[in-house]
Known about the structure:
- It is a single chain.
- This protein is α/β, with parallel strands linked by helices.
- The protein folds into 2 domains: 2-155, Alpha/beta knot (3-Layer(aba) Sandwich), CATH 3.40.1280.10; 175-243, Orthogonal Bundle (Trp Operon Repressor, Chain A).
- 39% of the residues lie in helices and 17% in strands.
- It contains 9 helices and 9 strands.
- The strands form 3 sheets. The chain has a 5-stranded parallel beta sheet with strand order 2-1-6-5-7, sandwiched between helices.
- It is elongated, with a radius of gyration of 23 Å.
- Bound molecules: 6-chloroguanine.
- 6-chloroguanine (6GU) is lined by residues 89-91, 133-136, 138-140, 142-143, 146.
Amino acid sequence: MKIDVLTIFPEMLEPVVQSSISRIAQEKELVDISVHNIRRFSDAKHGKTDDYPFGGGAGMVMTPQPLWDALSVIFPDDVSRKRARIVFPTPDGQHFKQKTAELLAKEEHLVFICGHYKGIDQRIRDYWIDQEISIGEYVLTSGEIAALVIIDAVVRLIPGVLGNSESAEGDSYSYPLLDCPWYTRPDTFHSLSVPEVLLSGHHKHILQWRIEKRREKTKINNPRLYQRYLQQTALEDLIIKGEK
Length: 244
Ligand code: 6GU
């Protein structure tokens, strides 16, 4: 997968995309991430990339020219444009979910536009952007952090990026319940012990314990997900009984 990120703060992104999962994915040549400085595309004095909003209001809006020119370089022709998905992280976008990450992980080319201030000129959104994504109900100062969140969630789902031992399979959100607690050696630490069942070697009991812990945690931390889980298991029971 090719990933291009347009930003006025490349220094915010570079250390992150060059470490952790993104670095491994790039070393394995499964992903190629390029960070582009929007300022370099600006025709204005001193590489200016923002201006006052028409009609007034607080804050600045990113001007269309540098973004348009940067996108025109990334997409030299219609074919390259058709093969890509342009994502705009923004607090007024659609909620980012695991399902969103799964769909984006199937793309061959993703382009992220990081906005600042009040955002970007609407004409860029109308003409270029395929998908507007919010990572949660709070406001961040910049789209960079949100873009990094989305990239991390997507890259780890690309086949081959994670090793078997780190497999994305039982993740919270790819399974209908949140994750259970995990422990490792030593079995007693500062007089804190590990639940005995995990040391019992009794696989069925361990599985039952883990499901119970997942239920307990989901009920408390994400009641809506828990309700969905209850409905789904009720439906599955009906299907098993042949009533649906
Ligand atoms: Cl995608 N951007 C910004 N600036 N703030 C956010 C967000 C995105 N998602 C939630 N808050």
